[in-house]
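pinned: reference chain
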Amino acid sequence: MTQEELIDQLNDDYQDRRLPEDADRLLTETMNQINGFLKDFTNQLARAI
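pinned: its structure tokens
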């Protein structure tokens, strides 16, 4: 299997996957935490300039 075929297979596998409810909730919480961190970081950076 070539690297391109492997990448295609991995992409197909990824697209076929569906997130279970718990994983979807965890992903949402994680994204919210990241967004909060970025907002705080941006505000601190703006104050420092």
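why pinned: The mean pLDDT is 86. The two ends are 52 Å apart (CA to CA).
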